[in-house]
């Protein structure tokens, strides 16, 4: 029995690449689509934001000789490619989907309109929000927080390659401590590397909880939707 009626699932672009590290691994995307479809069949309304890091990282490229606005726009287009790939995998399984883009591109995606997005969700369609916020200088984490607040999601579920929020980077520090629960204030004050501060502040102001969990464990998307103990919950 699902715990949440409506969720916003944030997926990293790297998740789409699987073990290859770049581009799209169709087998991995199919696995992710299968779990999302299982959640949807249980009656949960699912909105999604996918990053673009498997193709292009605008923030990193912007530190070089390229204009930051242009590189951020390139990154937004990378998220559209990932959204289309996930849409194809979901529809291959019989799901009804919509890609809604913050940058208008009528031939391949609907423009993002909040009321229309909510209506799609109410009709049981899986909605993929692409192109970030449509503005430079905002990450896909912030886009995920914004869309989650706009569609009145019950939770923002961030699927990552680690199993929660730690007091320090667990990759370089084997003694890092994982939190089961942590407050928004602690995340901001301790500068815990989970989401950018704009996204955290937006969720705090709107009392939207964030669940950070490991995407690389099979079945975790379903467990998350059921409300099983998983990852780290960030809340008030």
Low-confidence stretches: none
The CATH topology corresponds to: Carbamate kinase
Biggest β-sheet strands, sense, barrel: 9 strands, mixed
List the domain count as a whole number.
Answer: 1
If you average the pLDDT, what whole number results?
Answer: 92
Structural class: alpha/beta
Percent strand? 15-25%
CATH architecture type:
3-Layer(aba) Sandwich
Summarize the SSE layout with pairings.
Elements: E1 6-11, H1 13-17, H2 26-41, E2 45-50, H3 58-61, H4 68-92, E3 97-101, E4 110-111, H5 114-122, E5 126-130, H6 140-150, E6 155-160, E7 165-166, E8 178-179, E9 181-183, H7 184-189, H8 197-205, E10 210-214, H9 220-226, E11 232-235
Parallel strand pairs: 1-2, 1-6, 2-5, 3-4, 3-5, 6-10, 9-11
Antiparallel strand pairs: 7-8, 10-11
Helix pairs in contact: 2-4, 2-9, 6-8
Description:
It is a single chain. The protein is of the alpha/beta class and 236 residues long. The chain has a single domain, classed as Acetylglutamate kinase-like (Carbamate kinase, 3-Layer(aba) Sandwich), CATH 3.40.1160.10. It is 39% helix and 19% strand. It has nine helices and eleven strands. The strands form two sheets. A nine-stranded mixed sheet has the order 4-3-5-2-1-6-10-11-9, with helices on both faces. Strands 7-8 form a two-stranded antiparallel sheet. The radius of gyration is 17 Å and the shape is globular. The model has no long low-confidence stretch (mean pLDDT 92).
């Amino acid at each position: 029995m699902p715990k949440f009626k409506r969720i916003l699932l944030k997926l990293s672009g790297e998740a789409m690449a699987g073990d290859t590290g770049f581009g799209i691994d169709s087998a991995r995307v199919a696995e992710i689509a299968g779990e999302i479809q299982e959640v949807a069949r249980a009656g949960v309304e699912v909105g999604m934001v996918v990053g673009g890091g498997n193709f292009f990282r605008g923030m990193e490229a912007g530190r070089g000789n390229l204009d930051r606005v242009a590189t951020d726009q390139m990154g937004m287009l990378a998220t559209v490619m990932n959204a289309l790939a996930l849409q194809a995998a979901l529809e291959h399984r019989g799901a009804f989907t919509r890609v809604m883009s913050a940058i208008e591109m009528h031939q391949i995606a609907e423009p993002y309109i909040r009321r229309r997005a909510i209506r799609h969700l109410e009709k049981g369609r899986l909605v993929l929000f692409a192109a970030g916020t449509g503005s430079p200088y905002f990450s896909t984490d912030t886009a995920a927080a914004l869309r989650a607040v706009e569609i009145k999601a019950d939770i923002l579920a961030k699927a990552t390659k680690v199993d929660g929020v730690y007091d320090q980077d667990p990759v370089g520090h084997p003694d890092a401590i994982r939190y089961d629960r942590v407050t928004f204030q602690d995340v901001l004050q301790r500068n815990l590397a989970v989401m950018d501060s704009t996204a955290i502040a937006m969720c705090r102001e709107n009392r939207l909880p964030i669940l950070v969990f490991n995407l690389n464990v099979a079945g975790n998307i379903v467990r998350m939707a059921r409300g099983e103990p998983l990852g780290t919950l960030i809340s008030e």
